[in-house]
Specification:
The two termini are 23 Å apart. The chain has 133 residues and is α+β, with helices and mostly antiparallel strands. The chain contains two helices and eight strands. The strands form two sheets. Strands 1, 2, 6, 7 and 8 form a five-stranded antiparallel β-sheet that branches. A three-stranded antiparallel β-sheet has the order 3-5-4, covered by helices on one side. Helix 1 runs parallel beside helix 2. The chain has a single domain, classed as 3-Layer(bab) Sandwich (Archease, Possible Chaperone, Chain: A, domain 1), CATH 3.55.10.
Length: 133
Amino acid sequence: MAWELIDHTGDVGVTARAPTLEELFAESARAMFSIIAEGLAPASPAGTDSFAVAGSSPEEELRDFLSELLYRFSADRRMYVGFTAAPGKVDAAWELYDPVRHPLLTELKAVTYHQLEVVREGDFWKGRVIFDV
């Protein structure tokens, strides 16, 4: 696991590390869905969504990426269960949410800007994001 939980009063956060920016996005998404529910090992994904990882601000891109995944979970009941990083994009495999297969752990309301950070540290990218619960 290349991420860890951050204690934050009233909210929950994660820090993640990865060798590329795209892999950092994938690890951050894995962390977010591990906070939301159990049972994230893909059985038979129903589909895959591709997301571009580009822009002037890595922090803004990370927040937008995670917010889009959270929106699709809420609106379309897509439980993202697998992530593959490639240059310039992240592919996210999903299954339809099943309360038996994916017991909910924590309801996340939003991806916040509070303490949002994406930085290059030597050979790795490090990111921090706080979620509103």
